[in-house]
Design brief:
The chain is α+β, with helices and mostly antiparallel strands. It contains 14 helices and 16 strands. It has 2 domains: about 100 residues, Ubiquitin-like (UB roll), CATH 3.10.20.70; about 325 residues, Creatine Kinase, Chain A, domain 2 (2-Layer Sandwich). Helix content is about 35%, strand content about 20%. Strand 1 and strand 2 form a beta hairpin. Helix 7 packs antiparallel against helix 9. The two termini are about 20 Å apart. Magnesium ion binds next to loops.
Length: about 450
């Protein structure tokens, strides 16, 4: 069973009937908040129409629940008031165990979209791109570490980065993961054992921005289901074990206008068209401003070390894994066509907000006629400081406080996505920084190893 109802036949009664036939008893609706954690309400299938039309109650503090279960109140987000969590019927998917899942949006009681609703903000950015004639596809990568149910490290030896041993050692889990993804209609592109011990990565196929982000949330949930079935948990922390490699949540996107790609077939480097170059230029220029949406958690900075393929250097380059923006060329070996990969994003980010911020910068770059910066072809870490200075390459900040201060002060970020979501993000991330002040790096990694798990 794959997608239950298409957007134009979003009839709750029809969906309910089909779900019933598929053995579904309960429907889980999820939203992702400013901390990057996934919150949910579950209803019996008979309440599907209500879940879709009037929604279920959710306190405004849902936006600012923190990674330790606390609340980072702001001037406007207090204990007073209520919101409605409404599911998008077109996104319904069947899971195992008599459950279905759907992505949700948060609304005010008067029916207006909540200004902090990340899925709505991404839909708005997608709409603006569409109106301007740009068709965008986004592809997500998911990295995670398998750990014991209590979050402690699993005994697995040896571990060969990118090796076949990890695939065999964890084959029962990987089998279940694949069949659960299939059941939910998510075609997995590929999976491999990653660099870190018990770390895996898989990629999802490109889709329109909101749908792609929905699928990333669902895929994460399914990883959680499959891990539990094998007495494990999956850590989506940016740095599950201090001092090792972290988890990325790289996002790829491509742009087309009038049916033609903007990252190939043009006269710029590697065939990049002027507008494609402006989009890349907009991202490079604005990345330090919106970094708080992509790598804002208290554990995010420790992942951004040179040499770890997290894209710590603010630059772009063809197949350059040390560049925050890696360019993938069109060609026979690239079935998805030319695209750019924003490598710095990690899984503590709200996936909807991260896409919204990246794509809003791309559109802003096009509108303001940004120039494609000079390409950095090699590893910037091999250049001397003077050479990096001359090439105009620098490391992005790895300081949680500086990253969030930059977001807070950014007129650009506030102009692109609004004050409400910037303020909520700043509030939860500063709260994390206050907790972290008392913890050593390994204690911090351990304490929040499962904070972003589903
Ligand atoms: N784990 C790396 C990161 O933190 C990415 C490795 C890769 O390029 O797949 O982003
Ligand atoms: Mg990887």
């Amino acid at each position: 069973m794959t997608q239950i109802a298409s957007a134009d036949e979003s009839d709750a009664a029809k969906a309910q009937h089909e779900l019933q036939e598929a053995g579904v008893r309960t429907v889980i609706g999820t939203v992702v908040n400013a901390s990057g954690i996934t919150l949910a309400k579950s209803v019996p299938l008979t309440r599907l129409k209500t879940f879709h039309e009037s929604g279920m109650g959710a306190a405004p503090v849902w936006h600012v629940f923190t990674i330790d279960g606390g609340i980072a109140f702001t001037d406007s987000i207090t204990t007073v008031g209520d919101m409605r969590l409404k599911i998008d019927i077109a996104g319904l998917r069947v899971l195992q165990g008599g459950r279905a899942w759907a992505p949700g949006n948060l609304f005010e009681q008067d029916g207006a979209a909540s200004p902090v609703c990340a899925r709505r903000l991404l839909a708005d950015v997608e709409g603006s791109l569409d109106e301007a004639g740009y068709h965008v596809l986004v592809g997500h990568e998911l990295e995670f570490f398998l750990v014991a149910p209590d979050g402690s490290a699993l005994e697995t030896a040896p571990w060969v980065p990118y090796g076949a041993t990890g695939l065999l050692d964890r084959s029962a889990f990987l089998d279940d993961l694949l069949s659960e993804l299939n059941r939910a209609g998510i075609p997995m592109e590929q999976i491999h054992a990653e660099y870190g011990r018990n770390q895996f990565e898989f990629s999802l196929p490109p889709a329109s921005p909101v749908r792609a982000a929905d699928t990333a949330v669902l895929a994460k949930l399914i990883v959680g289901i499959a891990a539990r079935a094998h007495s494990m948990q999956a850590s989506f922390s940016p740095m599950p074990f201090a001092g090792t490699v972290g988890n990325g949540a790289h996002q790829h996107f491509s742009l087309r206008k009038n049916g033609l790609p903007l990252f190939s077939g043009g006269s710029g480097p590697h065939g990049i068209c002027a507008e494609g170059g402006a989009a890349i230029g907009g991202i490079i220029a604005g990345l330090p401003d919106i970094q708080g949406f992509l790598t804002g958690s208290v554990l995010s900075g420790s992942r951004l070390a040179p040499g770890t393929w997290s894209g710590a250097y603010l630059c772009w380059g063809l197949e350059n894994r040390e560049a925050s923006v890696r360019f993938l060329n069109e060609g026979k070996s690239n079935p998805h066509g030319a695209n750019v990969e924003v490598k710095i994003v990690d899984p503590s980010a709200n996936v909807y907000l991260a896409s919204a911020a990246i794509l809003a910068l791309a559109l802003d770059g096009i509108r303001s006629g940004q120039k494609l910066p000079t390409e950095i072809p090699g590893d910037p870490g091999r250049l001397s400081e003077g050479e990096r200075h001359r090439a105009n390459v620098r490391l992005l900040s790895d300081s949680p406080a500086a990253i969030i201060d930059a977001l807070d002060k950014s007129h650009l970020a506030r102009g692109l996505l609004g004050d409400a979501v910037v303020d909520a993000t700043v509030a939860v991330r500063r709260y994390e920084q206050r907790i972290a002040a008392e913890l050593a790096p390994d204690e911090l990694a351990e304490r929040f190893r499962l904070a972003w798990s589903i």
